[in-house]
Amino acid sequence: MPFERVFHLMDRMTVRRPTTGEDWEDIFRLRYNAYRTRDYIESNENRLDSDHFDFATNTFVFGIYVDEVLAMSIRLHHLNREHPDGPSSESYPDQLLSRIVLGQSFIDCSRFAIDPDLDPTVDRAALRFMPPRLSAMAALFYEADYILHLVRPRHKAFYQRYFHAETFATGGECGTVTFPVDLTATRIGANDQTMLDRLPFLHSLETERAMLFDEETARRCCFCVRPTALLALSLDKANANVRPTDRRERRPGAAA
């Protein structure tokens, strides 16, 4: 199977939203350690990295745990007319705010960080596909038009190669990071089926997306989710093999 290493990693993985002060501190400390290791931010006495977007109403902060150990964190923001504020719209207001006023919506990804002391048994190359997977699920859940990434220029090739990202703008500043960032965008709708065919780990069940982004459902599952990509793929294949007459007889939602 393509991306077998990614699927193998997801077998060991859970995705959680922080619910306690300790959870938040662990994520802020992981960010700080990851960014200071590369001189991405200035040092501070608390040895934590946080900003005003972390607790905004349109923000989702996730910890990605491998074998129950925090390995990575990512932050997503849903930008729309009601909630236009996010790191990308702050860094590039001229490129985004007019689109938001016209009704476009975005999933804005920020604060992607991997533990610099990551267990060597964790596949770092496979781990980097997890934030794009979460952002793709958010885009599907919210029916967003684009996924946005503020990235260093040398990292754009990754998003262009795998996610058909286009460059919206270049040379901007982003919060407290010490380097310029470019704004890339992946168009959703035009590319989603193509990406699913090429990147099977992006598949997910509706239940997984609800547990991540619907508040009531997330509370019921204690804000802790296991990836469903492999199960979603298996169900897709099973449905593809069902004869048209059988498909009509199957009750809606029976596969779930």
From TrEMBL:
Highest taxon, organism lineage: Bacteria
One Pfam family of this chain: FeeM
N-acyl amino acid synthase FeeM catalytic core domain segment(s): 26-183
Residue ranges crossing the lipid bilayer per the database entry: none
InterPro entries: Acyl_CoA_acyltransferase (IPR016181), FeeM_cat (IPR054597)
Protein name, entry field: N-acyl amino acid synthase FeeM catalytic core domain-containing protein
Species the sequence originates in: Notoacmeibacter ruber
